[in-house]
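User: Please predict the structure of the protein below. I'd like the answer in structure-token form so I can feed it into my own downstream comparison script.

Assistant: Understood. Taking the following sequence of 312 residues as input:
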Amino acid sequence: MTMTNDHEALAAPAMMEGDARDFFALLKPRVMSLVVFTAFIGMLLAPGEIHPVLGFIAILAIAVGAGASGALNMWYDADIDILMSRTAKRPIPAGKITREATLAFGLVLSVFSVAVLGVTINWLSAGLLAFTIFFYAVVYTMWLKRSTPHNIVIGGAAGAFPPMIGWACVTNSISIESIVLFSIIFLWTPAHFWALALFKSGDYGRAGVPMLPNVSGERTTKNQIVLYAVLTAISGVVPALMGFAGIVYGGVAAALGAAFIWYSFKTWQMPDGDEKMIPAKKLFAYSLVYLFAIFMALAVDNLAARYLGAVI
């Protein structure tokens, strides 16, 4: 099938709407799981308590809001998703769900999630969730992604808000601690996505998305990856330096950050034009481990302080 025919097929109405699995795929469940996890950790770390039922409702609303963002992203990006190998099987380019149905689905879930969070929890957390959906769907997807090679640097803020939202659900406030949690994810995002962009540059090139490797070259991308890996490693130990995490957490965070820098350095050493891109693939995989491990370490530290009576 030619590119023209691909676009014609995309524009044509689907013969039938997808099933529940296809609509679930619109929510980007892997991304949603990371959002839910970091939001839950933000809620756990926040001073004060929230009733378990309300906490469950809050997490559910945040998950639905994250899914709504994913659906709106797929609606807008359907024309380029069909050109990239890693996104060509998504429900719209695969012809399982129409763009119109996806847009309606995303908008309904957006309104529902924000309203539920506002009515049941508080309107600060609901406002943060609404801004996150807007930032990802409009600022990142519709504007930054196709206009600047630094799209992921600025756009990464959308993925960094969930722990702040979780924190606000408990405290109805924004604090320096929640901003630190935001910063860890914000600084982590460029190295994570640029590692992916290195071994998927062909996809982005075909779709016309100005990712850094396609615009500035591999060497510049590798330099930026190392820079952001260092910044991420530093941000990871800040909770211990500020006193809302303990010395054991600080040691774990330092070790995780050192490994992040090491993987980024191995990627930096990778020859330009290397077709296998193994160091970049390893960095991408480790970056996911890093983010999960750093937030899990924060959770363990917090639980130890809460139930053992001391910050470890």
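That's the full token string. The CA atoms of residues 52 and 58 lie 10 Å apart.
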